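Consider the tokenized backbone below.
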């Protein structure tokens, strides 16, 4: 029987990432979700953080009482004054990737409000069209309920990105109401460049935004089907968490397999719906992503300087420069990332931005002084 009602909807904000590709502004002690886009105005990082911006977007479809923030216990000091009940901030003892994170959230939601749906949203993304985003999330909750599906927001690709997963659409869902909706044919994780070019040009593929809506019980069923061992551990961990047995929770959490929700569920489920989401989305995964979020000058340069800072440039194009200095000059250079903090300086070709995370991992293994 088709279910036409929209279930109660929770927001689950995933705020446990390390943000290594935004080094040296994003650090282990304060990753990018706790900073404004690009680190904000140096040196004081003025402005709302990405997490605060994400919470504000979620207000359009979930109340504070129906909002969970899943974050690392190491970042407690950044989580104290959020505009949600304190009991809705879940501190993960160690990072275990998104499948355990969202599986635990689904268990907690189902225990508090059986039958509720959840919208999983990374805390470190940018969405320019808030109204359209909220409309899609609400439509997704209705479709998830009616079809018993997981509903993913798919971003129309404007370039062949190899750092994103892709969703291939199948047949159109005719009763989707005011939004376009399609059955998903395939979910592909991070393809090589040649394949990404074909996907971007096909008109049938969407970037995986990492945002999805599902009934909490439905997500738990998928985890039980595909990863029964993880599902069983999460069930016990959630029980310990609800009972406030911190030691038992930490011990059980340590036993969880570290795996993404994409690998655990999205690539395996047979009941996935994709909603095309032209909402001004950026995952802000690398420094070049700031070009779609922050102002650029006529030469395509992004300057992140102290208030009142000045620039002078000759034949300088497509730079991304963040500096504590009041005046920055550039001559005859292009496609560079230059990021200065109090204790570090990064210089990197734009085309090698994906390697920043790898570099941070390397020097982290050597002692991690600048992590």
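A designed sequence for it:
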């Amino acid at each position: 029987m088709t279910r036409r009602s929209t279930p109660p909807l929770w927001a689950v904000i995933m705020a446990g990432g390390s943000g290594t590709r935004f080094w040296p502004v994003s650090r282990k002690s304060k990753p990018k979700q706790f900073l404004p886009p690009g680190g904000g105005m140096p040196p004081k990082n003025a402005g709302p953080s990405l997490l605060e911006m994400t919470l504000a977007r979620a207000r359009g479809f979930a109340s504070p009482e129906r909002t969970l923030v899943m974050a690392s216990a190491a970042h407690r000091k950044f989580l104290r004054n959020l505009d949600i009940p304190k009991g809705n901030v879940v501190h993960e003892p160690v990072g275990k990737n998104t499948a355990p994170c969202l599986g635990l959230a689904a268990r907690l939601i189902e225990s508090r409000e059986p039958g509720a749906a959840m919208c999983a949203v990374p805390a470190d993304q940018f969405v320019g069209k808030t109204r359209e985003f909220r409309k899609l999330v609400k439509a997704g909750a209705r479709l998830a309920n009616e079809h018993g599906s997981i509903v993913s927001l798919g971003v129309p690709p404007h370039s062949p990105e190899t750092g994103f997963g892709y969703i291939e659409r199948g047949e159109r869902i005719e009763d989707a109401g005011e939004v376009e909706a399609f059955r998903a044919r395939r979910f592909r994780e991070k393809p090589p460049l040649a394949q990404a070019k074909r996907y971007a040009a096909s008109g049938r593929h969407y970037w995986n935004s990492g945002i999805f809506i599902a009934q909490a019980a439905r997500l738990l069923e998928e985890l039980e089907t595909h990863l029964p061992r993880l599902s069983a551990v999460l069930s016990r961990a959630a029980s310990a968490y609800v009972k406030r047995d911190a030691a038992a929770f930490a011990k059980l959490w340590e036993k969880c397999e570290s795996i993404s929700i994409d690998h655990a569920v999205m690539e395996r489920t047979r009941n996935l719906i994709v909603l095309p989401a032209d909402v001004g989305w950026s995952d802000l995964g690398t420094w070049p992503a700031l070009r779609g979020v922050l102002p650029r000058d006529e030469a395509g340069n992004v300057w992140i300087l102290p208030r009142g800072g000045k620039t002078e440039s000759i034949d300088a194009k497509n730079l991304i420069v963040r500096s504590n200095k009041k005046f920055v000059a550039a001559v005859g250079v292009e496609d560079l990332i230059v990021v200065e903090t109090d204790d570090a300086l990064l210089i990197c070709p734009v085309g090698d931005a994906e390697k920043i995370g790898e570099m941070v991992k390397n020097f982290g293994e050597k002692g991690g002084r600048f992590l």
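The first helix runs from residue 50 to 58.
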